[in-house]
Amino acid sequence: MEDLRSSLSAAFSSPSLLNASFCFPGLYKPRLDAGGLLKVFKGLIGSEELFAQVEMHMVNAAFEGLSLWANDHDEAASLIHRDQLRGLAALLLSPVLVDPGKPQPYEVMCRIMRLVAWMPAEGRRELQELLIDDCSEEEVLRSLVSRVRLHCDETVLRAHQMQRLSPEIWEGLMLLQLLWGTNEAIAQRLAKSLRSSEWPEADFGQSLAQTLSQLGKPAASVLGRFTLAPQVRPPVPSSEFHLQSLAEEKVPPELEFRLFVENACAGPITPSEVLELPLYAARTDYGFEYVLPSKMRSFMANRNLVPVSYTRKVLQVENHHAQVYLQHQVARRVAADLEVLPGHEIHIDPALLFFILKVHRDRILEDTTAALQKATPEDLRRQLKVVFEGEQGVDEGGLAREFFRLLSAHVFTVEGGLFDPLVAQNARVLWFNSASAFAKRFQELRVLRPELLRTTRASKALDHCGSALRVDCIEDLYWKSSMSSSISTFWSHSWHGDHRKKILTLLVLYNGRAAVSCGFFTALISMILFLFGGLPGLRRNERLEQASTWSLASGTVAASFALILWRSKERVFLDRICINQKDPDLKKKSIWSLPGLLKKSDKMLALWDDTWGERLWCLFELAAFLRSKAESEQKLDIKPTLIGPCCVAGFLTVFAIAVPFNTVPSNGQTRGVAVYVWLTLLGNVFGFLAVWALRRYFASVLALQEQLRSVSFERIRCQCCDLNHQWNGQELLCDREVVKACVVAWFGSQESFEESIRAEVSDAVVFDLQHHVFTRRRTCAVTSPLFWAFLDLSASWARVGGAGPELHEHFTRAASAAVEGLSFWLLVCPILVEYVVYLSRRFCRQATSPMREAFCNLGVLIMVLPLQALLFGCYWVLFRLNLPRLVISGVFAGEMLLVTAISSFIKVKAAKAAKASSASNGIPPLGQAKLAKNATDRAPQRRSPGPIDCGRPHVASVVHEWRVRESTEFWLAGVILGLVVYNNMPGLDVRFPPVVFKKIKNEPLVLEDLRQVHPDTYLSLRSLLSWEPEEELDEEERNAIFENTFCLDFVVTYEMNGATETRELCEGGKDRVVSYKNREEFVRLYCEWLLTQSVERQFEPFRKGVRRVCDSPLFNALHSAELELIVCGEQALDFAQLRKNAHYDGYQEDSSYIDSFWKLLMNFDLVQKKRFLSFVTGSDLAPVGGLQELQLVIQRNGDEPTERLPTAHTCFNLLLLPEYGDSSKLERMIVTAMHNAEGFGLE
């Protein structure tokens, strides 16, 4: 015992002896056996009796030895050699420094730290090198760090008790920083050794060499292939350097903020700077002393030694000071404006002192976006106050926490469109979506805002002769639309078509049935009035002295007025009316919501003309409608704009034929001949024009079929191409960028969509246009004036009257006229029209000259004459048989019914044959040999490009604006994140990878950062770096094998909006091959592109948004890991910590009721725990430092009998808890309150 005591005392009291002791024997260069020494000292401490006998002797010897080392700054200036400093490491490992709470060990450590502070820069660097070489074993370094940190905590604790910061604090931080640098240097040298072929390095100390040798040479050879900064963890985790006394707030955050502002605003000090810091002579309470420079005298300057929870509290102080400073500025300005004398009260609008954010819960994202866009930088730096519209309450922090919790669920999610869904799925983190969010919004088939879903009555769309469909209309028609939950019919049309045809077609489609009904009703009323003598007649012959023309005239006039004036109530969508033309923002949002509007539409009406099939937006609307509906729900109605003019012209033609039929004088014997002559002559005159129009129509249908069968995005026209991609002097992106992305997302690929158009849509559309346009029902509606003429004839004979046989004959003639009218109206006319349509479709080839075209039309008309002769010949033959008129009319009606049945049978057979031919040959049988020429001859003439903006502008005109909006959305996301930090919120429930915060702080990125975002790509690149040939080869052979194995060049290939894109990683990358020699450069450039360049357009606005709010000296001093913890909060929810710092009002902490309450909370799963935190605090996250930072207050709020639910004041973390009778009721009431609390009050 005596020998041990004397040996240790002799060694510790003599610096030269201590420097030479405890070294490995037999080495050329002395090396401290730190591991063996620590083991011996631990054994000494383990023997309490033995240690008690030698402790004081070792302490006294240490004091004596330290005084011999140096008594002042001047003596310490000579400590620059390793042999002079080795004993300090042994002294730091001595057992007497284990407990810094004792006075003597505390003083010894203070002397050691002061000695290190007195040393010159060369001495500190040499001491650090000594520790790296001789004390690199993890256990040894942990012991050194632990002892120095505990002493620093003790120093802070004593300063807290004395209410004075002593120089020993900063001297202790200097030594702790020196150990931090030692820890980092060991990790760096270990990484360097892993990359090196030499194992171990010659100049490594014995201790570090032993550490490296434990990995073995095979591991070194494998890891040595990773040339891009392999990540090696330091022996001691960074958390073991953090001062726990700061986490306990022994130094008030307000004091530290003042120290930081006074001494360290230039930024944090680095461990390498610590080695170079000189001492300065300064006056202190003890006289003139050498002290550390002011830059060292701040805890935040040594931020790597400060817990994040304390950093956050100091940051909160800084934020609060900034907010108060702005409020004082406002108060001074108001006082100066009002000329108020000092000491007098002034009333200031709270909106000037705070940033008051008013939002609705159901529109939280829209209201927040609008408010932040209007806010100035000064507004954003004011203290935030949140007001939920329609709710009572004052925001003292709880409302803001709840606001950010709700808002983050809208913004920081994949569904918001800002973040990449593939990365979220594969890496479980949020990463910026480099794809076009504009295309994504289209792909989602949703309406951005409910108020954008608007409809109008069809009658309003057709007001003022359809002015809404005119290109030159500049009137604001938005007032004609109103909000709706669905759309009955979506009108799809081309603005490059003839608006007059579209207007007439819509009038016929929506008002035609009402017009014919009104015409029939008026004709019948006129007939009745004429029969009873209410209306005068016209003399036609001797027997018909009072002939009627009222049914034809009144029916035609009534139908014409009804066609124009009828008010259809069907709710339709017309872009010019339902899209706001005056508000650019609403207009753009409506354009972006177009696919969603189509999804909400029950039916789509496509007004087809020559330009519809070649316009990009028309096909896009068709694709969106087909994509949004199941096959059974696809109500697609394609109507040619020729229907309207043809129907109106046909109606007027029949009227023109019927007028002379009812007004020209005739006798009974020649009436049949007169009918035949008038119908033949006038019908053929107007029929010539009809044939000409029909043949042109069917030729254009065949041209459409050719367009659809060869549809290609490269050939489809869009307005941006018509404008040569220039708009108001700015270059426009092409519409195809967005439309292609949507089509690929909906149909899998562009080719699939084009094939779907060719194989399905083409046949269906063309078949409908050829066979389902000129229907029998429409023919009957057009030829209704003919029947009204026969009604006049029937009324004329009925009014003649008479007695006996004469009366019978007159009524027979009246009845036969009605039957004949029905026969001609319902049977003869449809047969003739169907035959004319068939011949026009069959011979639709256009002639090369107008003269030949006229002869072709005449030829078709001549082919109709035999059928006309047959039909009217039957009638004339029956008439010549002198049969009773009623019998003649009945037989004629029967014959026409038979002919109609045969015609219908032939028509059905022809339609089936056409479908079969279309399915087998791909081209309808009509005009097969002439299709190509027809398509060429009838190709629509391109109009000169011009800026047409009629409610549905080309997307390229708003893509640039969308880019700006997209940047704004990322900027807003950054502002929201900045507001969370600036307003001292607990954090956001977001899963950003650490690389996001490194980019915010402009810290360098490494290969390991890629692993967090693209793990598959990271593994591929790591495999690329780890590849080695199987045998030793020269450089040229290795490069050749590598190139043949991987076949790579300096080009990156990626998917963008469904299309494959390529980008060169360097100049000439397409022609540069990746070889064994330059693979590291390829990996570096690839990582730089993935993490920086590919998302630069999205990330830069996000970073600027954060910096718009947070740009203070302390924020700039934060490390990325600290910022991540402050933003994301603590992920672990330890309710034991919450209970540890809870306070009670009306309850005892050790009561059985409180114990059962905490047992209930402890048994909650993670989701329930988050709900409870949200209910009590407004946020479901724990702040940095854990739940102990919340300081929950539980206040008694009544007892049994009660059915009162627990309530909470989230601003103060206060829970009002009634005392229930049993634990089951306690659980039921708490769970009920948690799941039903929203805002102020239970809903």
From TrEMBL:
Transmembrane segments: 510-535, 642-661, 673-694, 779-798, 818-837, 858-879, 885-906
Enzyme class (EC, first level): transferase
Keyword Transferase assigned: yes
InterPro entries xrefs: E3A/B/C-like, HECT_dom, Hect_E3_ubiquitin_ligase
Keyword Cytoplasm: no
Domain of life, source organism: Eukaryota
EC assignment: 2.3.2.26
Record-linked Pfam families: HECT
Active-site feature positions: C1211 (glycyl thioester intermediate)
Domain HECT: 376-436, 970-1243
Parts forming coiled coils: none
Keywords carried by this UniProt record: Membrane, Transferase, Transmembrane, Transmembrane helix, Ubl conjugation pathway
Catalysed reactions, as listed in the record: S-ubiquitinyl-[E2 ubiquitin-conjugating enzyme]-L-cysteine + [acceptor protein]-L-lysine = [E2 ubiquitin-conjugating enzyme]-L-cysteine + N(6)-ubiquitinyl-[acceptor protein]-L-lysine
Entries under PROSITE patterns matching the protein: HECT
Stated name of the protein: HECT-type E3 ubiquitin transferase
UniProt organism field: Durusdinium trenchii
